[in-house]
Amino acid sequence: MGGSVSGADAPAPSGRRRASHHGIRDNEYALISTAGMLWRVHRTTSSHALAWDELRTYGPLLRFDPHPLPRGDHPGHGVWCGATDVHG
After folding, report:
1. 45 and 78 assigned to the same domain
2. Start-to-end CA span in the chain (Å)
3. Are residues 56 and 44 in the same domain?
4. Is-contact 61 71, C-beta < 8 A?
5. What CA–CA distances, in Å, run from 81 to 8, 9, 35, 70?
6. Structural domain boundaries, residue 82
7. 12 and 20 in contact (C-beta within 8 Å)?
8. Do 7 and 24 fall into the same domain?
9. Residues 64, 83 within the same domain
10. Which of 10, 41, 51, 67 could form a disulfide with 59 if both were Cys (CB 3.0 to 4.6 A apart)?
11. CB neighbour list of residue 36: distance below 8 Å, 6 or more residues apart
12. Are 22 and 69 within 8 A, CB to CB?
């Protein structure tokens, strides 16, 4: 995977000011090379399982979820969780 850029050196992504309002710190941002592989982190069996390429629009459930309150289905506010490495 390509190198990452620290939050202090990274260009400000759109919505960064809004994200900081929700407690996301500058050092929690990283740019990831598009040449690498991302692993999808999601449930594969449940009554709420999504396709591998489908965004979860129900939330917020976790700290970084982009969904507005109250918790519920919010079309247009989806999240896709992934990782650059898998640890056993």
Report:
1. yes
2. 19
3. yes
4. yes
5. 23, 24, 18, 21
6. 37-88
7. no
8. yes
9. yes
10. 67
11. 1, 2, 84
12. no
Tokens 């056993």, located at residue: 88
pLDDT per residue as tens digits for the range 8-62? 555 555 555 555 655 667 777 667 777 878 888 888 898 888 888 888 999 998 8
Whether residue 31 is found in the same domain as residue 60: no
User: Tokens 């740019």 belong to which residue?
Assistant: 31
The greatest distance separating any two alpha carbons of the chain, rounded to the nearest whole angstrom, comes to: 42
The pLDDT value recorded for residue 58 is: 93
CA distance readout (Å), 34 to 16, 42, 51 = 21, 21, 21
Do residue 41 and residue 26 come from a single domain?
Answer: no
Residues 22 and 55 in one domain: no
